[in-house]
Predict the structure of Ribosomal RNA-processing protein 12-like conserved domain-containing protein.
Amino acid sequence: MEHDGMDDAVEDDACGEILKHYRRSQAPEHRHLCAIAMAISEILKEQSLSASPTACFAAAMSSLERQINTIPRDLAVTTAIVTFLARVIDRVPPAVLRSKSEKTLQLLLQVLNVDASVAATVKPALNCVKTVVTASDLSNWLPLTKSFNIALKYCVDLKPKVRKSAQKCVSQMLLGFQRHPVFAPASDAVVSSFESMLKSVIGPSLGQTQEKVKVAPGTAGAVEVLHMLGALQSVLPVMSGKAVGRILPVLADLVQLRQKLLTRRILDTIHDLSISPTSEIPITEFANALGTLASYFSASGKKDVDEVPVATRLIQNGFERLHTLEPSVCASKLTTVFASIAGLLAAEQEEIVYGAADCLRNLVLSCVDESLVQHGLTRLQQPGKQKGPPSPVEKICATAESLLGYQYSTAWDMALPVVSALFDVLGPASYLLMRGTIKTLGDLQSLPDEDMTCRKQLHKALGAAVAAMGPEQFLNILPLDMDNSDLATSRIWLLPILKQYIIGARLRFFADHLLPLASRLRAREQKLIGEGKPVAAKNCEACVESLWALLPSICNYPVDTATDFGRLAKTLGDALNKEAGLRGLICSALQTLILQNRMARGDQLEGKKELKAVEELSSLEFGSVLDARARVRDFYTPDAASASLSAIAGYSRNFLPLLFNVFLAQPSEKRGDLQATIASIASISDQQTVKNFFIAIMKKLLQAMKDAGKPKDKQDSMQVDSGNAEETPTSRRCVFMDLALSLIRGLDEEALNMLYESAVPALQDKEGLVQKKAYKIISSICKENQDFLSRKADEVLGALLRSLEVCHASARRHRLDSLHYIIIHYTKSGDQKKDQIIATLISEIILATKETNKKTRNGAYDLLTAIGHAMDVLDDNKSNLMRFYNMILGCLAGTTPHMISAAVASLARLIYEFSSDLCHTIPQLLPSALLLLKSRNREIIKSVLGLVKVVIARLSAADLEPHLPGMVQGLMLWSDDSKNRFKAKVREIIERLVRRCGMTSIEKVMPPEHMKLLTSIRKKKEQAEKKKRGTLDENEDAKSTKSRATTARRSAWDHTDIFSDDEDDDSDEEYESTRAQTMAKSASVAKTTNTSRSKKLRKSSKRLPEDFMDTGDEPLDLLDVQRTREALSSVSRKHKGGDDDEDEPQFASDGRLIIDENGDKKRKRSRDESDDEADTKSRGGKSFGGKSDTSKGKTSTKHGRPVKDSQARKKAKNSWAYTGEDYVNRKGKGDIKKEGKHDPYAYWPLDPKMLNRRQAKRRTARDGMSSVFKAGSKTKGGKTSKPSFVKRNNAHKRSKSTAK
């Protein structure tokens, strides 16, 4: 019956919600609450009232009043009524509560006074009091006094839950009192309660001396004080500013009690006050409290590692808040506090030093503002007697300089970042304010490494000074002194710092100071060469190059380009013409200068090279450089940038022909920077000027075309007098095409048409390099000039279609670029021919995804996705995208495996990119794709496996479930195919399915004969999880950070990951799997596995990465033996790393140092070499006790050292043995010890043939070992003066002499 009543009451409003929430609970208090709710619901039904919050409130108050007057009173019923009241009172209209506030508070206070020991009653009662008080008339404090004081009393209750609830209620009441007349008296009530508790514990002399603080921490009064401090942590931020001002001095004095628990509560309370954005903070009292805390913690003898870091963090946050409220008060207190915290850097505890340094750095960054700096500069500029006392910023700078003294030498690594932050904030003013600091930093550089262990931080501080004041002012304080007779005494160590941190400098400074210095050093170099001092001359040459290396940094946002670029232009031109080693630096500087001004002017940068340059420049800006960049940004307005570009463009008539000549004289691999510089200058030059140069280039291009068309014998006769023996008419033609390409951005419409007309015939040229240049020209024209593309789109498309059949492989990437702009143009314009055009070109694009050249392949994928995005934006129903998808789908009907494989790869790329729009097509696509797994063509199988990977990555587990049977069955067809390396690929896909769908789902569809694979995967997963748990226990924080970084980021498309074709991609997994299953087998089987693995590694080392196939202007010519050898050797060096460095020590896996007693480093060898050497050692073992195999005359030795035949040389090196003859006791038995030598020992190199699977080789190795024991037994106690291998060689020498 009870449950039936509950079901009926569920439909009620307030009561029904309570019943619905607690009806299934078996807790007694919840059953009582449900009973009260049902009773009140029945009462309201009898009175024909709805169970609204107001009606429930009235009924509950009536029930509570009757319950209080009942004797004896049922405590459980009272608790249930108060709990019910607390759940509905928040929903009662404030007007109703205000009208009944007096009676309601009276009843609630009776409950709190009578049931003070029952936490279950007190908590909801306090919540009701809070709600009624905040809804009452807040203009009169007197009726609310008693209720507020009762809540304050419970803030120090011994029961934690009651105490926490009371503190929350008091803070919410104070928050509701704000902007009302009761706010001030309520805050005063909190202060009075706090002071009365302190006086009862400490006495009336609070704040005078420290003698009164001898209080036992365990007394009741001390506990109440701690609880009150805990309440203040949440209450103080919502109190009035006047009341907070009365409490703060008391809290600052209480810190001097030197009791950890009390101090920590006080620090947390003030810290929460400082970080609360809505708190009312009395500025003077707050500043004084912070100053008191800083002085106390810096002056205390024993510094607590738990308290001091908390105090420094409080001071940091407090001064940041103080600076936002009143900067003048902050400045007046900052110097004292800064000096006090600086003293903590001399502490021994690392935590204190780190906290103090972090506090100082943040104080500098947040509290040293422009007004403070200007005040200091104004005082410095006054005459001597009128300067007055030092300004606050001068005191801060002096304190920062003192941190570089020897008393803080152990904390220099923490102090130097503070100095760097001060340079960043002061900016150019640091030239006047921190001159002494810069000199001190220079002195620290001269310290030896054992005294200066933080040189990296020192260089960062010097770099911050360079970025702040500029190189000119910096070098006035700390000059380079490179005119000294001895360069070792100069400060050439500053040059790398200057190069990294210069920004916003003046070109005039480079022209007037650094260039003359470089000229003097160059003359000095020539003089030293004449005097026969090549080392000193080389040093001067290195200094000259280092000075010129500053040019790109000087051109990093210079402030005087518009006025002083002319002072530098002539010198740059001369250096370009005469100094080949400086051309790269000059080109980089000019490109940076032009690019940054174009960005400031607001030009649109779309070129890949430009965007890459912007990214590189941005990556170089960090820390101090960013701050300097922000200061320079105000100068770089669009108007200033335009003036700078005009100044540079004024010298284009001089630079362009000079660059052309240098370009023509350089080999192809050194023309990249020159071409980029020509393009940059042409982009800002006058069109007529560029056109004039362009016409001259086109004339030379026309002549080169004529020369290329002549018969070969006439070409050869014409090249007799050529300056470059390797230059041909075709190469000259390509050079002039490159020059014309560089000028595209500065050409007008007529010149562009001329360039296009010259490029179209080159598309049909037989030379692949010429085609490549022609396609680059057409793609660049289409990219840079949309008007040209709009006018001649049909003509360009026709030219591209006509040249398809003769397109060279090296030009296909740039052809795809041209097709990209054409197709996207038609698609975005909504032309009706777009579908026909795409259908015509789709086969070419799809086949390009199978190109060997990585860039061509990526270009094809990018084109597919670009077409998809362009189709996607045309309409909202995705019909265009689906039409494009179906075009690719139709290519699955191709007649060649190559086309089918490319179509599958293209579909995978589209599904990966547009998974949300194309996932619904997978159920129709996947069965057809899985049928292709029955094909025997490896290329098709590889593409289908890649498509399956994409499907797993993009479909959810629920969507994958229906396809699991077909997927698993199709994959298992290739699970045993190790010949084509599909076994590991299938295993990887099954592992992905297990991770996505779970082991149980895969087990259901896995054929029984392949269940061993799942067992292996499960064991491997368990081992990995066990290893991860162990790693997590060792370094939990690092592991969690890594996990978040790897899972939060969506992976980008990776062709190599999806369609991996690496021959040894499965070697590791397969090897580990085999190793785990064959751990108990014989060593011979393990060695066979190792041997096969070494073969794979050897094959991999002889294969070129795909990045090497498309380096330079032309792909790698595999028929060119010399170039192929060079590429293979570079790959070999890359794999070997630093193994060729004979000075590097070798270490074993456990960290032991490996010493090769022969003096030769051991190198990796192939299996064949290892076997040969092992055979030699086994055969050579016989010579330790008998004859040497020299009958065939293959070896010839002299004095025990081989001089002929590599096998004999290996045998002598690897057969080294030592029988310990130096320690033989000549007078008796046993061994003897000798001073300065090791303890007695003998050495025998273990023969790996002892583990060979062939019994004959193992026997040979054992014979060699037994011969040593025999030799040792024969010489025991005798005279043996030489190692056994020397004896063997001597025996061989005797045998030769006997034969003679």
Notes: The first strand starts at residue 1146 and ends at 1147. The chain has a mean pLDDT of 78. The two ends are 125 Å apart (CA to CA).
